[in-house]
Automatic annotation (TrEMBL):
Its main location: membrane. It comes from Cercophora newfieldiana. Keywords: Lipid biosynthesis, Lipid metabolism, Membrane, Oxidoreductase, Steroid biosynthesis, Steroid metabolism, Sterol biosynthesis, Sterol metabolism, Transmembrane, Transmembrane helix. GO terms for molecular function: Delta14-sterol reductase activity. This is Delta(14)-sterol reductase. The chain crosses the membrane at residues 21-46, 88-106, 126-148, 160-180, 256-275, 295-313, 325-344, 438-456. Gene3D superfamilies: 1.20.120.1630. Pfam families: ERG4_ERG24 (PF01222). GO terms for cellular component: endoplasmic reticulum membrane. The keyword Nucleotidyltransferase does not apply.
Length: 490
């Protein structure tokens, strides 16, 4: 792209654009930004290891006593100030620093991103797999030496609430930092900095939420340059999800003296999902998060808080209610997972192979539409079945995460109660389904509902983007590939 053309692109980038708001506009962005942290705090307190999941008083709202409820949910003795601690915040920041050091020190591969609007291409360093394996190796060595009492596992379990708060604060701070810094983006800058098309509406609340700058980067002493969006997408939060799961496995062992097949299954498959993300880490460069969305609170909160804390709800639940699946139960959920993962991985591999080299023998036989925009739209293979068949596989994978919790719900009784069907903890307390049975599904199955809504919304966003980009070619494509996500249903 000629220097003059680059400058014109950059100048257009600076201008606020009138556009159709997503997520309910500024009010919706505000509701999500301040509502989701409250939701996660609610989940933390309402489903707990003090009184039950949900807390018993929540099942009797007409006679609800606030002081009794505080005791049941484990509300901090020093009130709201107890939601955070300097110790938990310090160690959380230390975890981020450790991850950054591994990014700097460990070898990795360098990959070029997609072509930007100004004609440039950014370079990315990928060594997430090496970093994750190095971290897990340290945890494995510590667990072998100290068992379930390994300090990392006990720290996560004992300071879960405060670690959640620390990450929320980091997410807010990071979103604010990149928003303020985005105003330093100058036309024709040599660093290829751009504003995201959807993040320059001129409304502060909305742009802070959706992300104003497309690819914010910082250069840190010794660490070097870090692409904030890509790094946050695959580093602390994603690995943090796996570490949370492992910590809850250790917690179950400390509480009961054994580990159930259900929590092992969920932990193994979720860790496998994380590992798979690292194995194909460069594929992230073609996702909407990287190519289209700016980096704002939506992604900072999603990456650092929502993923590790919401996605680990099932293992958190099972650490206190040790449900056993048995051979048939394991076979059932494993079968669903195998089908789901196959759809997800094979379809994504096919897409990336076609985008990288459409003449590759594995994809050369596929049919496509040649668009006026110069790109090709697949209409056969996996992508002839549904426009986002990978979303279907991804959503199916959420079911084996939640199904091992069964008809979730439990109440924790005092030692010596000798309730029928109760599971006894090592400290004598008893865990029984009781009146809570089924109500705990609000927490353990919420992920399935949320993920389905998320993928439907993503499909809608992609449809809007492609309609603008391809015009009548997109309409032609939709007549050929009729189904959006689920074949013959949606």
């Amino acid at each position: 792209m000629a220097p003059k053309a680059k400058k014109q692109v950059a100048q257009r980038q600076q201008q606020p654009q009138k556009r159709h708001y997503e997520f309910g506009g500024p009010l919706g962005a505000a509701a999500i930004s301040f509502g989701l942290p409250i939701l996660l705090f609610t989940f933390t307190f309402a489903c707990n290891d003090v009184s039950g999941c949900p807390a018993p008083s929540l099942l009797r709202p007409k006679s609800l006593d606030l002081e009794a409820l505080k005791i049941e949910v484990g509300w901090p003795e020093d009130g709201i100030w107890g939601l955070a601690s300097w110790r938990a915040t310090g160690w959380t920041l230390g975890y981020y620093l450790f991850s950054a050091l591994l990014y700097r020190i460990l070898p990795g591969t360098e990959v070029e991103g997609t072509v930007l609007a100004n004609g440039g291409r950014l370079k990315y360093k990928f060594n997430g797999l090496a970093s994750a394996l190095f971290t897990v190796a340290i945890c494995a060595a510590g667990t072998v030496a100290q068992g379930a009492e390994f300090p990392l596992w006990t720290f996560i379990a004992d300071n879960y609430l405060q670690i959640l708060t620390a990450n929320i604060i980091i997410a807010y701070s990071l979103a604010t930092f990149v928003y303020v810094r985005s105003f330093s983006v100058k036309p024709g800058n040599k660093d290829l900095r751009l504003l995201a098309e959807g993040g320059k509406t001129g409304n502060m609340m909305y742009d802070w939420y959706i992300g104003r700058e497309l690819n914010p980067r910082v250069t840190l002493p010794f660490i070097g340059e870090i692409d904030i969006k890509e790094w946050m997408e695959v580093r602390p939060g994603l690995l943090g999800w796996a570490l949370m799961d492992m910590a809850f496995v250790a917690k179950q062992y400390r509480q009961f003296g054994y580990v159930t097949d259900s929590i092992l299954f969920v932990t193994v498959v979720q860790c496998f999902y994380v590992l798979d993300c690292y194995i194909v880490e460069p594929n992230i460069l073609t996702t909407m998060d990287i190519t289209t969305d700016g980096f704002g609170f939506m992604l900072s909160f999603g990456d650092l808080v929502w993923v590790p804390f919401l996605y680990s709800q099932q293992t958190r639940y099972l650490s206190t209610h040790p449900n056993q699946l048995g051979t048939l139960g394991l076979a059932g959920v494993a079968s669903i997972l195998a089908v789901a993962f196959s759809i997800f991985r094979l379809s994504n591999n096919q897409k990336n192979a076609f985008r990288t080299n459409p003449d590759d023998p594995s994809v050369a036989h596929l049919k496509y539409i040649q668009t006026k925009a110069g790109t090709r739209l697949l209409i056969s293979g996996w992508w002839g079945v549904a426009r986002h068949i990978n979303y279907f596989g991804d959503w199916l994978q959420s079911w084996p995460y939640s199904l091992p919790t069964g008809l979730a719900g439990y109440t924790i009784l005092a030692a010596g109660t000798k309730a029928e069907g109760a599971i006894t903890m090592l400290d004598g307390r008893e865990v029984v389904a009781g009146d809570s049975k089924g109500w705990g599904m609000i927490f353990t199955y919420f992920y399935i509902l949320y993920f389905g809504v998320l993928l439907i919304h993503r499909d809608g966003r992609d449809d809007e983007k492609c309609s603008k980009k391809y015009g009548e070619d997109w309409e032609k494509y939709k007549k050929i590939v009729r189904w959006k996500i689920i074949p013959y249903i949606y």
